[in-house]
Amino acid sequence: MMKTLALILLICVTISCKKAEITSEVILKKEISNPVVLPEDKSIRIDSALLTSFNSKTLSAFYKATNYRTIWQSKENRKIILAELLKSDEEGLNPEDYKVKILSDFEKKSATLDETDLAKYDILLTSSFQKYISHLTNGKLNPRKLYKNWDLKENYIDINEILTDLLNNDSLADKIEQLKPNHIVYKKLKKALRLLNTLPKDNFNALKIEQIISPNDTNISIIDIKKRLIYWKELQLNDSLTSIYNEETMLAIKKFQNRHGLAVDGIIGPATIASLNFSKKQRMQQIIVNLERWKWYPKEMGKEYIIINIPDYRLSLIKDKDTLRTHRVIVGRAKRKSPILSSKLTQVVFNPTWTVPPTILREDVIPAILKNRSYLAESNIKIYDRNGGIVSPYEWQLSQAKSYRYVQSPGTFNSLGMVKIIFPNRFSVYLHDTNHRDYFDKIDRSLSSGCVRVDNPLELTEYLLDDDINWNLEKITEILQSEKTKFVKIKKEVSFHLLYWTAWSENNKLIFRDDIYNLDADLYTKLRN
Hints:
Layout: H1 2-16, H2 57-65, H3 75-86, H4 100-108, H5 115-138, H6 143-146, E1 150-151, H7 159-167, H8 172-179, H9 184-197, H10 221-231, H11 247-259, H12 270-276, H13 280-296, E2 304-309, E3 314-319, E4 322-332, E5 340-344, E6 347-350, E7 354-355, H14 358-371, H15 375-378, E8 381-384, E9 390-391, E10 405-408, E11 419-422, E12 431-432, E13 446-448, E14 452-454, H16 457-465, H17 473-482, E15 486-489, E16 495-499, E17 503-506, E18 509-512, H18 520-527
Parallel strand pairs: 1-5, 2-16, 4-13, 12-14
Antiparallel strand pairs: 2-3, 3-4, 4-14, 5-16, 6-11, 6-15, 7-10, 8-9, 8-10, 11-12, 17-18
Helix pairs in contact: 3-4, 3-5, 4-5, 9-13, 13-18
């Protein structure tokens, strides 16, 4: 009874604040609950045997709470739900998953259905709506079953409590809207899907070039390239298309390259051709898988947080929904992917040492030592045995190699650079500086072994420590010059999200990034199977 009263209070507050910004109304809970459901007048008794074929504990628990009576007597509510299920493709979902054709047929005949069919309609509508709520708020698939490097907490949802709340609310459509992911990227993905749907069907053949095409070149492929640019609205349609790579086409190519995260140089090479060869269908599938990912991500990012989009090689610091700063980053390469995780920043380490992790030890360091024992001295790496004693490079034995600890001393040539920023996680990854700052000028920056290297990390560190007196850049520089390791706690609460998405929209323009870990196509196949 107390739970029901709490729900009523919540509904009253929501109604009184209709003009306020829409926020998430997802109720997160692991167990199946049995909230009290009060059927409307003229409800029909349901034979519990009709529930058996659905094999759903959640569905059975819900109808047990209704005392096995129908709940969808309101034609208006049924139409709202049917309309929502029919347009579920706007959320990247598949209307066929919700039996929309059968439900629509039931609705057309609703005035003449007997009690048995009305009960069947009611159950099917509830079952489909429950599934839609689950898919909408938590995604269709479970990423923890798909990926080993996934470390985001599952958003357990109490579907029946949500459904009860919806039933008891006068504004069903508004409440459904509040269940949808509220993050700006999700909204930009939905807009991208709408933009893509405005384009006509494409029937292009794959583009092929034998060598790069530079401005002012003449090449027969330029005609087909221009047609592709016209399709994507980068180039205006002219009366005649020539094979000359003129200035107008070069400007269009640069716009296209910028939208796809390519080198904006006007040179038509393999990477630009590969992006031009994506069809409308492939781009639509790419947007759909990213909509699914955003249903997996945390419902609340935090008041102040760092978010990294791995394929965009970009770190953004957000506070009160404003982007305060951005940094280029280097992420894990395909064989050593950066993990997907959420955490909180806890500590800064100046002049860090670097303990070589097992994968790098096995694949990089041991082969280098076998090739040249002086590698250790040149890399400023010391070897320690299990008792903490130093092992001479010339006493090092391959048979004992994995039992040693390899530590690179602080300094200019340390692999972590001058600073690292720690956030608890099971992968032992962190943010850090680098001794290869020239790598930030590369377009493809999937180059690390899983950790994330940050451009201009000292400026980010100064902001995070938030102490103009003790931790300004001048004081930080003094610490760095000492080459002594120092640990400093981050006092402000800053959440951290390391995520992956390859599509969105900006200013009515479709934005795409290379799927550097080759996840999109496989995910789409799983979503539609």
